[in-house]
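User: Let's play a game. I give you a shape written as C-alpha cells, and you guess the letters that built it. Ready? Here's round one.
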C-alpha cells in the first residue's frame, strides 16, 4: 500500500520530493509501509512530515489506484509562500515545486498521469479511480455519458451457442451492431440504463428473433443493419418466474439516421460506439459474457470487420445522424438517412 499527498502552490506548481535513500525518483511525498495503527490518510500525513518537515492537514482522497499495490493520494492543499521558503531548511529529502509542464522531464508518463488526475479530481471536488496510471475505461465512460451504476440480472444468465430448443420461449432479441471501425453500438436511456439495441418479440414475430432484431434496432437507435446473424442465447431462469431465452445476434451498420423517440417508450436514446471488449462490463453482464463476446467478434470477422481495441475509446453518434464512410476500412456502403 502506498499513501501520498498532493501539495501545490499559488502558481499551480506541485511539490515533489526525492528521498535521500531509496529509488532515484521524483514523486509526491509518500510512504510505502503503514503501521498497524495507521490509516492511509494518516500515513500520507506522516510522509509529508518526515520528508518535507511540515505538518499537513490532509483533505479528501483524490486518487485511488490499483497497480499491483493500492495507491492513495490525498489532498494536501496549497503551500503558502512562507512555508515554501522553509522547505530548504526543514525538508529531509530533496524537494522542489515543479510546474505541470515540467513534470514529464522528471518522471514516467504514468506518474505524470497520476498527478494530473489528482489535480483534476481536486478541481472537480471528487476522487478518481485509476488502474496502472490510467482511468478505468468503464467507470470513465459511465461518468462521461451519464450511465448509472446498477445491478443486472443478466450477470446470472448462462450462455448457449446452440439454437434455441423448441420448447423454450424466446423473449427478446438483442444485437451486437458493429460499426466499420470495429466498435459496437449501445444505447443509453434517460435514466442512465445501457444495453445493446433490441427488445421483446411481438406476437406476429413468434420465434422470429431476426425480424424483431431489425425492427427493434431501427426503433431504438435509428440504425439500418445487414441481415442479423444468430450467435446463441442466454438462458434466463428467474426464481418463481418463467424460464425464457434471450437471443443474441450480430450485424453491421449500413446507415445511421437522426436520433428519434422510440415508439414503445417515447425515449430518444443516446447512441454510443464502444470497443467490444467493454460491452459486457458496461452492461453489467460479468465475466460469464466472454463467450458471447467471442461469438460476436467471430461474426464481425466474417463480415470483414476487426474488433476495436479497448483503447480505441468511446464516442457518441451525433443525434443528427452521419455517414459511416469517414470510418477507416468500411466494408459496407453507408448512407445518411434524412
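Assistant: Ready! My guess for every position:
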Amino acid at each position: 500500500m502506498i499513501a501520498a499527498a498532493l501539495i501545490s502552490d499559488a502558481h499551480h506548481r506541485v511539490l515533489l520530493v526525492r528521498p535521500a535513500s531509496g529509488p532515484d525518483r521524483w514523486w509526491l511525498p509518500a510512504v510505502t509501509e503503514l503501521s498497524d495503527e495507521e490509516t492511509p490518510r494518516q500515513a500520507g500525513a506522516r510522509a509529508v512530515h518526515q520528508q518535507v518537515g511540515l505538518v499537513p492537514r490532509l483533505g479528501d482522497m483524490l486518487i485511488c489506484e490499483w497497480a499491483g499495490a493500492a495507491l492513495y493520494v490525498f489532498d494536501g492543499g496549497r503551500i503558502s509562500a512562507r512555508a515554501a521558503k522553509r522547505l530548504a531548511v526543514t525538508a529531509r529529502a530533496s524537494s522542489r515545486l515543479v510546474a505541470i509542464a515540467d513534470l514529464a522531464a522528471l518522471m514516467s508518463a504514468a506518474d505524470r498521469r497520476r498527478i494530473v488526475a489528482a489535480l483534476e479530481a481536486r478541481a472537480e471536488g471528487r476522487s478518481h479511480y485509476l488502474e496502472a496510471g490510467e482511468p478505468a475505461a468503464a467507470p470513465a465512460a459511465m461518468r462521461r455519458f451519464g450511465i448509472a451504476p446498477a445491478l443486472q440480472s443478466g450477470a446470472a444468465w448462462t450462455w448457449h451457442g446452440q439454437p434455441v430448443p423448441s420448447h423454450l420461449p424466446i423473449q427478446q432479441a438483442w444485437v451486437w451492431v458493429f460499426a466499420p471501425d470495429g466498435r459496437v453500438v449501445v444505447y443509453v436511456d434517460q435514466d442512465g440504463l445501457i444495453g445493446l439495441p433490441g427488445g421483446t418479440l411481438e406476437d406476429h414475430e413468434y420465434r422470429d428473433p431476426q425480424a424483431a432484431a431489425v425492427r427493434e434496432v431501427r426503433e431504438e437507435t435509428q440504425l439500418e443493419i445487414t441481415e442479423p446473424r444468430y450467435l446463441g442465447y442466454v438462458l434466463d431462469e428467474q426464481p418463481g418466474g418463467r424460464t425464457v431465452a434471450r437471443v443474441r445476434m450480430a450485424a453491421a451498420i449500413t446507415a445511421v439516421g437522426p436520433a428519434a423517440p422510440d415508439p414503445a417508450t417515447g425515449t430518444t436514446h443516446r447512441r454510443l460506439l464502444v470497443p467490444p471488449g467493454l460491452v459486457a462490463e458496461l452492461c453489467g453482464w460479468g465475466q460469464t459474457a466472454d463467450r458471447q463476446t467471442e461469438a460476436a467478434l467471430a461474426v464481425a470477422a466474417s463480415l470483414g470487420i476487426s474488433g476495436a481495441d479497448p483503447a480505441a475509446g468511446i464516442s457518441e453518434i451525433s443525434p443528427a445522424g452521419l455517414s459511416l464512410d469517414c470510418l477507416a476500412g468500411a466494408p459496407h456502403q453507408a448512407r445518411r438517412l434524412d
